[in-house]
């Protein structure tokens, strides 16, 4: 089954092929029709002009016939009328003989006054042109060039006629049967459409095949790259966990502390709606929060009794020391908020910068609550661990002074049995337990 990108590409390619094919067919039809009309019009015009130029008195077709009483001395009106009708019939027969082979079905000759002086339809003779016919007539007379108009199966040509001296004497309107040419154009166009359709079909399946093959290659490469990045991230996190475990092993008070507090922070971050990259940075910052303690002397770090004022001053340097250690690692940049600010207090009495309230980054505020919870519920050389309820009471008591009230409230909503599972699992051999194994089991 094709995925959305494949379906989208196929739809777009199909639309392109159909639209291109229709446009190409339409353009081909127009071009063929235009060329054939031009050629046919030219041949018809030449035939009409050649016929008229061969008449002894061509101008008689474009002026009013002489009156019955003035015909070459004739005085018998009936004889004149008979002779005139015979002449007209002979002229009509000659014109039919000349133009019928060209498919001309109607012809009219109009003089300069826009009146019809010859027509296959006798009823039109003597009538003045009106409407569109008059507009076409005037245009041809003004411009002196042929005008072409096609209506379904009829091709109308308005041809300017000149005398032997080159004077414009009138216009011949020719109505030519276009059905044979239309059928020919249709056959040619249909052939082109079929060829275009075949070509477009071949092009469609060729491009689709190339796209699918390329997409599979790209998809495979992307998967390999994604797997490689996942391995790199796992390697990063495994290295961080190894560093954190090494630090915990050095500190008598914090055996398993980084593992637990990172799990608590991850759970609390999700509880507060943090996700994606920000949750990852909270995870890594929690894991490395005390990395600066690597630079604290063992005499202070492993001292079993309370620290004096000088020793506390040295201990507090672990924050800036940790930041300096990690600052040059680009991908850990956002995680430094936890390392730098996890000892700040909501009331501004913390260190190293004395930030207060929402000046403290949210990840650092989350971690501070989790760090204190773990400190209360873990065994220390100088006191035993306290219960979950006692820890929650302590957090509630210092909400608004040491801790962010909203973070404490969210922590209260974490299931106690989930927090208990974290504590129990952290008691396993730290050397063989990782957060990747712990987190899925406690959610």
UniProtKB/TrEMBL annotation:
Name the record gives this protein: HD-GYP domain-containing protein
Q: Kindly give the PROSITE patterns that the UniProt entry links to this protein.
A: HD_GYP
Which SMART domains does the record associate with it? HDc (SM00471)
InterPro entries, per database record: Cyclic_di-GMP/3'3'-cGAMP_PDE, HD/PDEase_dom, HD_GYP_dom, HDIG_dom
Q: Where is this region: Disordered?
A: 66-85
Natural source organism: Cohnella hashimotonis
EC no.? 3.1.4.-
Which parts pass through the membrane? 12-32, 185-207
Where does the record place Polar residues bias? 72-85
Which NCBIfam families does the record match to this protein? HDIG (TIGR00277)
Q: Which residues form the HD-GYP domain?
A: 232-427
Q: Which GO terms describe its molecular function?
A: hydrolase activity
Q: Which PANTHER family match?
A: CYCLIC DI-GMP PHOSPHODIESTERASE TM_0186-RELATED (PTHR45228), LIPOPROTEIN (PTHR45228:SF4)
- UniProt keyword annotations, A-Z: Hydrolase, Membrane, Transmembrane, Transmembrane helix
